[in-house]
Automatic annotation (TrEMBL):
This is Bifunctional protein FolD. NADP(+) binds at G165, R166, S167. Homodimer. It comes from the Bacteria.
Length: 279
């Protein structure tokens, strides 16, 4: 069996190409799609992510507003900032960079985002819609994982997908999307007692653990399809790439796998939101 390296840059490029004419059309109508990013504090990794998102907007001729709040910002101050962006008609998408400093109630902040601008599917309404299968803007990394599977025409229907991680922005929504696509889904987490045994049964593996090189090739079934959402210091994912590559039939690299598709998905969902404002 041929092994496929699932190239996120190719998938992302395809998404961006599809957006160019849509953005031009909006501009002709006097509307520039705009993503507002909010960063609280000085986490260097978060700063890099926010910069990457802003630059990606600019490269496509979109607008991006970057709001950088100090570490000591309170939950209510953050909510106020979000409300201002909700009321700003030139803003079509709002992204609050996760994680926020620990003294902030992240859930309360996420819930303050207007559902029409929730282009990263972080509100409970956005998540609920995704889970029920009619969500407009699923969380971008889960949507990116589904897009990669679609691009490479990987069958999901009837397959056993094992998702490692259950965070509200990644593990849970990707489990829901895979279930909606007719996979049989097992969602694992830190209290799962027999992870390697469960992974041995997986046709599709999604790694969303936040632990560098955590999943080993020896835990996986021969021929499994591996999507690594992890991104850790040292440019490594949540799977041990070398040993997982040996057993996989298809695998995303880090970098150049899920990451670029996530950003392209964020741009796409912001353009979609802008299109709704233009009608
Ligand atoms: P998170 O909020 O820290 O969640 C990690 C999840 O992994 C939790 O559900 C946790 O279980 C589970 N977990 C921790 N240790 C485990 C273990 N030993 N066995 C099984 N499960 C375990 O992280 P996240 O925000 O979902 O992010 C996950 C990864 O994706 C990170 O590497 C992050 O950098 C990356 N990420 C990438 C992108 C991208 O664009 N590529 C976007 C977002 C995130 P509990 O629920 O029991 O604690």
């Amino acid at each position: 069996m041929d092994k496929i390296v699932l190239d996120g840059n190719v998938v992302a490029q395809e998404i961006r190409e599809g957006l160019k004419t849509r953005i031009e059309k909006l501009k002709k109508n006097g509307l520039i799609p705009c993503l507002a990013t909010i960063l609280v504090g000085d986490n260097p990794a978060s700063e890099t992510y926010v910069k990457m998102k802003g630059n990606a907007c600019k490269r496509l001729g979109m607008k991006s507003i970057r709001v950088h709040l100090p570490e000591e910002t309170s939950t209510s101050e953050l909510v106020e900032t979000i409300k201002e962006l909700n009321n700003d008609n030139s803003v079509h998408g709002i992204l609050l960079q996760h994680p926020v400093p620990p003294h902030i109630d992240e859930r309360t902040a996420f819930e303050a985002i207007d559902i029409r601008k929730d282009v990263d599917g972080v509100t409970s309404t956005g998540y609920g819609q995704t889970a029920l299968g009619f969500g407009e803007y699923p969380s971008c990394t889960p949507a990116a994982i589904m897009k990669i599977l679609e691009h490479y025409q990987i069958q999901i229907d009837g397959k056993h997908a094992v998702v490692v991680g259950r965070s509200p922005i990644l593990g849970k929504p990707v489990s829901a999307l895979l279930l909606n696509a007719n996979a049989t889904v097992t969602t694992c987490h830190s209290r799962t007692s027999n992870l390697p045994e469960i992974l041995k049964l997986a046709d599709i593996v999604v790694a969303a653990v936040g632990k560098p090189e955590f999943i080993k090739g020896s835990w996986l079934k021969d021929g499994s399809i591996i999507l690594d959402a992890g991104y850790n210091e040292g440019n490594v994912g949540d799977i041990d790439y070398k040993t997982c590559y040996e057993v996989a039939s298809a695998i995303t690299p880090v970098p150049g796998g899920v990451g670029p598709v996530t950003i392209a998905t964020l741009l796409k969902q912001t353009v979609e939101s802008a299109e709704k404002y233009s009608v």
